[in-house]
Amino acid sequence: MTDLLQPYHLGGLALPNRVVMAPMSRVRATPTGEATPLMSSYYAQRATAGLIISEGAHPSGVGQSNVGTPGLHTDAQEAAWKPVTAAVHANGGRIFAQIMHSGRVSHPDTTGVRPVGPSAVAAPGEVFTPSGPQPVPVPRALATEEVPEHAHSYARAASRAVRAGFDGVELHGANGYLVSQFLSSNANLRTDSYGGPVANRIRFAVEAAEATADAVGADRTGIRLSPAGAFWGVEEQDTLGLYTALLRELTRLDLAYVHLEGTADEDLLLRLRRAWPSALIMNPSLPMGPEQVGRAEADHWLGLGADLISFGRAFIANPDLVERLRGELPVAPADGDTYYQGGEQGYLTYPTYQYGG
């Protein structure tokens, strides 16, 4: 059976183990979206992961979700990421940048402009703004001729990411953000070539992935998906048919990997595993769900055919997670109250395992 601590070749990278640090928003960037020295230390602490995937970086001003999130669309943002990637590489690690366009999940108080989306349908709930949580507004529906510009924004951000020293990029196609909104049957009510039938609703995702692969190389490009996920109110019809069609098109692009979240039942996820012939990263848990993933879930999915396993909250509280998994040591729980509060507490203050204590 495949072991979690075995090496793996992913695209052009030799990974020392199959443990992936999942992308997680921690809102420690500057108000103008630059990475900070805190972020350099945070990622460098976790460089023993086979691969780190950074928190989502917005590819344009209108694509920003919350305050405190980093970007990859200005020269200053690009330059600010260089110490982060350098710190990870100095500690022997590898890091991909996740590129995340929020679409309708944003607010004018954060970006200065009205959010955009496939259709003028608001997401439920509240989004964080500089003045606190506010209801998510109705987005402006993108005109047909505008859609390719937003698809190509992922590619432009990817080029900046590689120049900033990232080893590759992951497109955030999950969790109710822009790619997910185009896949959705209730956030996407379009009647043009980007809406309606499955072939049209997957078009945006495919165009974004194709443009990114052309810009930085398919072997440096992955995508994260959350089949049947209901984040930010998105719904999907015929999830199996939708994602099978999407994976068929992505197979043509020869991407480095697909990163699936455990948002659907196991049978559906296994069908998607069979539909994807290349590297699969599996995150066995629901984002922010009740369970923190451990070794048992990782081994289960490696046995079912996943190639790598991503861990989220376990990496927050355990910078030495790989060593803890290797030594079958206790994995500490994360403190949810400090996820987004800013500063060092709950960010750089989690210790490595103390032997004999």
Distinctive features:
357 residues, alpha/beta, TIM Barrel, eight-stranded parallel beta barrel, two-stranded antiparallel ribbon, 14 strands, Oye-like, Alkene reductase
Explained architecture:
There is one protein chain. With 357 residues, this protein is α/β, with parallel strands linked by helices. The chain has a single domain, classed as Aldolase class I (TIM Barrel, Alpha-Beta Barrel), CATH 3.20.20. It contains twelve helices and 14 strands. The strands form four sheets. An eight-stranded parallel barrel has the order 3-4-5-10-11-12-13-14, surrounded by four helices. A two-stranded antiparallel ribbon has the order 1-2. It has a two-stranded parallel sheet with strand order 6-9. α2 links the parallel β4 (51-57) and β5 (95-99). The two termini are 34 Å apart.
Short description:
InterPro entries: Aldolase_TIM, OxRdtase_FMN_N, Oye-like. This protein is α/β, with parallel strands linked by helices and 357 residues long.
CATH class: Alpha Beta
Helix content: 25-40%
The class by helix and strand makeup works out as alpha/beta
Strand order of the largest sheet: 3-4-5-10-11-12-13-14
- Helix/strand order: EEEHEHEHEEEEHEHHHEHEHEHEHH
Radius of gyration: 19 Å
Tally of individual helices: 12
How would you state the average pLDDT, rounded? 96
